[in-house]
Write a structure and sequence with these properties.
Layout (H helix, E strand, L loop, with lengths): L2 H13 L7 H8 L3 H13 L4 E4 L3 E4 L12 H15 L4 H17 L6 H4 L18 H10 L1 E8 L5 E14 L2 E8 L4 E6 L3 E10 L6 H15 L2
Antiparallel strand pairs: 1-2, 3-4, 3-7, 4-5, 5-6
Helix pairs in contact: 2-3, 4-5
């Protein structure tokens, strides 16, 4: 790795972390010695990069540091392309189109030598089958998550039992060929996972969940941690 690239990557490592990052951690990621990291840190600080910290304690980057947002490395471009390819293959049409739009926007602003990484990427995902007809429009579920609105579901279980329930949506998740709504279920008084392909109807209500923004997700994260601790 060229030294200029390494200095840029150190800034990236610090920018992605909210806690002090040790020279040992940086050296491990960049596959260089700690002595090299110390020299690079001294160079960056000498160039007035707002880095605070010292050897043995870790380093943090000032929140006001401004760097052009699309100075992307080849690996970062391929990571974005790979992620966008995967999203574009999901049954959420609006999200799929947005992924393609992101790639088009990046291609329009990156330097010319980088564009082949987008036009003919060296990474790819396996094409997935088209979603069956009748799938619920997942974009409506995402809107409910954003706005903190309740959703009324008609749902078919694995045993073919149909139920109606009101849920408080937390997050829409995607796996290999599946989509899932994680939500607090008023019927069960607990968090539940609802597969999108088993939803017969999903109606977003005008009623809010009645919690401050972020509270429901925090409760779900605690529930998930408890579930993992007691499998």
């Amino acid at each position: 790795m060229r030294r200029a690239d390494r200095l840029f990557q150190i800034i990236q490592i610090l920018r992605r972390s909210t806690r002090p990052v040790t020279a040992e951690a940086i050296a491990s990621e960049l596959e260089v010695s700690k002595r090299t990291v110390y020299r690079d840190m001294a160079d960056l600080i000498g160039r007035r990069a707002p880095i605070e910290g010292e050897a043995g304690l870790g380093y943090v980057l000032g929140a006001d540091y401004d760097m052009p947002p699309l100075m992307l490395t080849p690996d970062e471009i391929e990571a974005v392309v790979l992620g966008a390819q995967w999203v574009a293959g999901q049954p959420d049409k609006i999200l799929a189109n947005a992924a393609q739009d992101v790639i088009a926007k990046i291609a329009a602003v990156v330097p010319e030598p980088m564009r082949p990484l987008i036009a003919a990427p060296g990474v790819g995902v396996r094409p997935r089958a088209k979603a069956p007809e009748g799938w619920i429009d997942a974009s409506r579920l995402r809107q409910a998550v954003r706005k903190g609105l309740k959703v009324r579901l008609r749902y078919r279980s694995e045993s073919e039992e149909e139920t109606e329930r009101t849920v408080w949506p937390v997050i829409v998740g995607y796996g290999e060929g599946t989509g899932t709504l994680i939500a607090w279920c008023e019927l069960r008084q607990d968090f539940r996972h609802f597969r999108i392909d088993r939803m017969i109807e999903a109606r977003v209500l005008d009623e809010t969940i009645g919690l401050r923004k972020g509270d429901l997700r925090t409760r779900w994260q605690r529930w998930r941690e408890a579930e993992r601790a007691n499998p």
